[in-house]
Every structure is written in structure tokens, then in C-alpha cells.
Amino acid sequence: MESELLRKLGSKSLTKEELLQEVRENPDLLPEVLSGVSSSKAAIRYRCAKVLMDLSQEQPERLYSHMDSFLALLDSKYRILVWNAMAIIANLARVDRDRKFDAAFDKYYRFLNDEYMVTVVNVVGNSGKIALAKPYLVQRIASELLKVENISTTPHLTDECRKVITEKAIESFDLFFDRIEAKDKVISFVKRNQNSSRKSLRTKAANFLKKWAAQKQTRQTWRRPVRPCVFVLT
């Protein structure tokens, strides 16, 4: 049986914003919100999930003890809950002292092969946040993102959708490019999209190259060995 709090949320006499504020002020309400994610009523489960997503951004430590539950949500039959879970998990990465995300890495990135664009975009879009939180996973994350231009199209993921995903990948690369070892591969990836038919993708690629390619060239110049001068006495 649902609590009075959740019934109010379902009847819209309590807004998502009001619930978030109440949970901020009263930690004892958190279990009710967590249980709301399993509600049979869409209005309740999605609003509760959104409140948890917002809270995970603001106060990840409060939700970390429930990390296993959010990882389990990746198996939900409701795509919106999967998307919410992806964002929450990414937010909790910065307090993931037990490395629970690490154990679920393959499961998380398997969604890059999902048939729905929004699912793939959520993985790609959250990757920068995860990379910054877990620097030791940067190379694995970069390797996964480099695969997105080759993902298969589906009725729910067209070639144009793939360009949107590629654009999001460039945004994520921009957040942690300085930590990536395979910089040449990322630069090549971006260059292949600088003449895209999608204007926003062209712009993202151009801005990325302007920012990073020039810096990379400068660093290579700095590292170029200096030949010693040889003086011949006559």
C-alpha cells in the first residue's frame, strides 16, 4: 500500500519540486521515495526517479548506500527508469569508494548497442562525468566512446540519430581529453565529422579541434628534442 506522500504525488497535489524540497529537509522520507520507483503508477515512479536523480547530483553520499538498487534499475522494463538510473549512477561515481560501478562497467556500456537513441545518448552523455570521477577508467571509457560512429542503425536509431550521438561523444571527450592517452584517435574521430551534414555536429567538431588540436601540436613542439650545437675550432 502506498504512503500518503506517494498518493499525493500521484494525485499531483504534491509536485516533484515540493517533494524534492521535503526530502532535502527530512532524510527520513528517502525510503518512501525509493519505494516509489517501484510503483505501478507511472506518475509516481517517474517523479520519484527524477527526485532521486536531482538528489544524486546534489548529495550523492546520501544515496550511495542504495547504489546496488540503481544498478539493478538498469534491467528495468521501463526505459525512462533506465535513463534515470544511468544518470544517478554517473552522479554517484564520485563517491563510489567500493568501486561498484567498475564491476558493472561492461553492463553500463553494453547500452551503446541499444536500439533506442535516447538510451545510447544517456550512456555517452554521462561518460564525461564518470571519467572525471574515476580517472583510472578514462582509457576504457574513451575506447568505448570511439565506437559510437559505427553503431548499427535501427527504426529507433537512424543515421541522423547517430550524428546526434557522435555530437554528444565529442562533448564528453572535451571534458577529459587531456587525460586520454589515445589522443590521435580522438582527434581523427572528430576530424571525420567536421564536414558533417548536421550543422551542430560540424560546429562541435570545429570548436573541439580549435581548442585541443592546437594545444596538442604545441605540446609536441615543446617536447621535440633539441639538437646540440657543435662548434668546430679552426
What does this protein look like?
The chain has 234 residues and is mainly alpha-helical. The protein folds into two domains: 1-95; 104-207. Helices cover 65% and strands 0% of the residues. It contains 14 helices and no strands. The protein has helices at 4-11, 16-25, 30-36, 42-58, 60-63, 67-72, 79-92, 100-103, 105-109, 117-133, 138-145, 159-176, 183-191, 199-223. Helix 10 packs parallel to helix 12 (159-176) and helix 12 packs parallel to helix 14. The relative contact order is 0.07. Residues 228-234 have low confidence and may be disordered.
Features:
single chain; mainly alpha; 2 domains; 65% helix; elongated; disordered C terminus
Short description:
Helix content is 65%, strand content 0%. With 234 residues, it is mainly alpha-helical.
Outline the secondary-structure elements.
Blueprint: H1 4-11, H2 16-25, H3 30-36, H4 42-58, H5 60-63, H6 67-72, H7 79-92, H8 100-103, H9 105-109, H10 117-133, H11 138-145, H12 159-176, H13 183-191, H14 199-223
Helix pairs in contact: 1-4, 2-4, 3-4, 4-7, 7-10, 10-12, 12-14, 13-14
Tally of helical runs: 14
Quantity of strands, as a count: 0
User: Radius of gyration in whole Å, from Cα?
Assistant: 22 Å
Structural class computed from helices and strand pairing: mainly alpha
